[in-house]
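Appendix B. Chain record.
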Amino acid sequence: MTDRRILIVDDELSVRSSLEEWFREDGFVVETAEDGQAALRAMDRGPFDIVLLDLKMPGMDGIAVQKRIREIDPQTAIIILTAYASVETAVEALKLEEAFMTLLTDEERDKLVRDNMQAADLGAAPGGWTWVLVRNGMMVTSVDNGPLAQNLLDSGRVEHLRADGFLWQPKRTLDWMVCDMVEQPRRVAERMATWFQQNWCRQAIFNLKLPMKKRVAALNDALNSVRTALNNKGIRYQLESKQLYHDREEVTVYLARKR
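Structure tokens predicted for this chain:
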């Protein structure tokens, strides 16, 4: 038996009921909530070890609820349930949302993550990171030869360019560039450095996928390549990196041009 507490958040009664029964039989203390507001009220009543959270709900969506839960109790483990597009999209979205929450201060988020900013998402398909940018009010150029979720294209805030994210370049300086392409960390880092050398963006968040062996060496090599490239050009910058809990095989990097 266990006394671990779990909160199930889903707008469909059948999903809530079946999960509640399953977890109660496994010894969990279970509460349910039909929407984001009910979930936040439950969080205020007491801590939960785990939250099972539907991504697509009317009113406050799962990403917004996840952000508020993190503010209430950063120790709560959150597992996303989604029929939005795919589990892959949900996991992607959480990675960028977590990066905004972890690598930027509250003041930086208020200043740098705002409506009508211009952003690019390199290697965008299926669209999880693009979705987070759109949800934050940005206009996004999504660069990928693969398809994007139709709901993103219908938002009116996304331009989908079927192109190689390593070759495409914007026509003007963007507020944000994000990148979650699967490639050698050194190659990704060098491309990110090029974006800042060419003044194609002001801020960036990108993932470095680490090899199975010599991960620390590969990470240091990639980050040092960015530092060397920018230092050689006399560019002042802020560089932060962290291995977020969603994926132990990659490190997420925040890079910003300093004035």
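Further analysis of this model is presented in Appendix C.
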